[in-house]
Amino acid sequence: MRKEVVIIGAGGHAKVIADIIYKSGDIVLGFLDDNKKIESNIIKEPKLNVIGTINDIYKMQEKNNSINFIIGIGDNKTRRIIAEKYSNINYYTAIHPTAQIGLDVEIEKGTTIMANTCINTSSKIGKHCIINTGSIIEHDNKIGDYVHISPNATLCGTVEIGENTHVGAGTTIKNNIKICDNCIIGAGATVVKDINECGTYVGIPVKKIK
């Protein structure tokens, strides 16, 4: 049975999620966004509109308890705030048909797996994560909740990423590395040692910046 999905947020990331939902054979009912400056007609074909604000979530669910929601916002902190405020709704997990998902992989609710990603055997992906276009998650990875793995990032085997961490586009993380919660790894970086202190890290190999 095709699922009906409402996307929370109406920016570029939300539009990509809409595409994934359609390619998965499910139905996008529309977007919810508090920004009044956003045009109501987000996608012209098929026609997809902003149909309300975020405060309308529970009202919509009361009318139709089979509706699914997904948070289409790239910022980890914002995604977490919304998910924790609206914890008692049905969350949709968006997986692009071109994603390669290995055996024994666990993907929790509200997560988005984008086009041409590879998640290999026995990896675990937390809730409300973003595994962005073309990224590689090798075997036995553990990705915490509210993590964003950006396009074309490569995580080698047995990597652990803590909650709320953002891994920048094109980053490479060596096997058996652990990165703690609340980190930002800059685009194009290389991580070859564990990161045990939250902060922003850039470079090859990475160094913490103030």
Class per helix and strand makeup: alpha/beta
Our estimate of the beta-strand percent is 25-35%
Shape: globular
Q: Helicity level, as a percent range?
A: 10-25%
List the strand order in the largest sheet: 6-9-12-15-18-21-23-24
Number of DSSP strand runs: 24
Radius of gyration, in Å, reads 17 Å
Write down the overall mean pLDDT: 95
**With helices defined by DSSP (H or I, 4 residues minimum), what is the helix count?**
3
**Could you list the spans in which at least 5 consecutive residues all have pLDDT below 50?**
none
What would your notes on this structure say?
The chain has an eight-stranded mixed beta sheet, with helices on one face. The protein has a six-stranded parallel beta sheet with strand order 7-10-13-16-19-22, with no helix packed on it. Strands 3-4-2-1-5 form a five-stranded mixed beta sheet. By secondary structure, the chain is α/β, with parallel strands linked by helices. The longest helix has 12 residues. 14% of the residues lie in helices and 31% in strands. It contains three helices and 24 strands. It starts with a strand and ends with a strand.
